[in-house]
Specification:
By secondary structure, this protein is an all-alpha fold. 62% of the residues lie in helices and 0% in strands. It folds into two domains: 105 residues, no CATH class; 140 residues, no CATH class. The relative contact order is 0.14.
């Protein structure tokens, strides 16, 4: 998938601030305790475990905001209470708090890159942002006419890609590709191929699936020159997901609230 990024929205900034706050609270409180003790101010060192508890609660909140829940991250406040409610001596407290802070940081990285982004202020809206709305209008005639079941499968593919569930996305759409509009059939094949690659269960093919020249007028992103193979390869998936989204939006009205929840992910594909 393309590594390009979308301009930060207020909701995305808030999430980034919370992510930054987790290591700041969990490590910072412990370092503050060490500094105070080194200056002869003997405060019960368990008091500084509050930073790890706050970091645990923030991590659990970020996990709760995601459509796919990470039970490990959600349960960290419980472990914080268990670890730090029992009195301990100074050195043991430092070691335990530092290890726990490192664990929270690693879990934050896991949450962010395995479970996707939380829905932001953009995704909470009731209408499509203009790039997506304009693209749906552009491709309406080319991807209309799907059965409700097929359109729902297209919506599921978008949801699964947005949350990093690539193995489940592979093969969800396009099993009977002969019944799909031509550009959507190609988009489904490209998405299936990339899903297997992203999941790590298939090598990158030398001759990967691409859109055809006659599709270019309906693609959201101009395809880079084929000589720039990495960008050309990534752009195939970005375009494929937007084609699939358009088909889902047009044909699966009951799935529109969930598709609105994927807006932040979809807007990145335009970059």
């Amino acid at each position: 998938m393309s590594s390009s990024t979308v301009s930060a929205t207020p909701g995305m900034n808030n999430q980034q601030y919370l992510e930054l706050a987790i290591p700041l609270f969990s490590f910072g409180a412990t370092f503050a305790g060490v500094i105070l003790w080194s200056r002869g101010i003997e405060i019960n060192f368990q008091f500084f475990a509050l930073g790890c508890v706050i970091g645990s609660c923030l991590l659990a909140y970020l996990a709760w905001c995601r459509p796919k829940k990470d039970i490990v991250a959600l349960s960290t406040p419980i472990y914080a209470f268990i670890f730090f409610v029992v009195p301990t001596d100074y050195m043991s407290g430092i070691v335990l708090q530092m290890l726990y802070a490192a664990s929270l940081t690693l879990l934050l990285v896991r949450l962010k890159y395995r479970f996707g982004e939380a829905h932001t202020a953009v995704s909470a809206g009731k209408e499509l942002a203009s790039p997506l709305r304009d693209y749906v209008d552009l491709t309406r005639d080319a991807v209309s006419g799907l059965s409700p079941e097929t359109a729902h499968q297209a919506a599921v593919v978008i949801s699964q890609f947005s949350t990093g569930e690539y193995a489940r996305a592979a093969g969800t759409l396009g099993g009977s590709s002969g019944s799909l509009p031509a550009i959507l059939s190609r988009a489904a094949g490209i998405a299936n191929e990339h899903a297997l690659l992203l999941e790590g269960s298939a090598p990158r093919p030398a001759n990967y699936k691409t859109f055809l020249p006659e599709d270019e007028a309906l693609l959201a992103k101009p395809l880079p020159p084929s000589e720039d193979e990495e960008r050309h390869f990534d752009a195939q998936l970005d375009n494929a997901l937007l084609v699939i989204f358009s088909a889902a939006w047009i044909g699966a009205e009951t799935d529109r609230p969930h598709l609105l929840g994927c807006q932040a992910f979809l807007l990145k594909l335009f970059q």
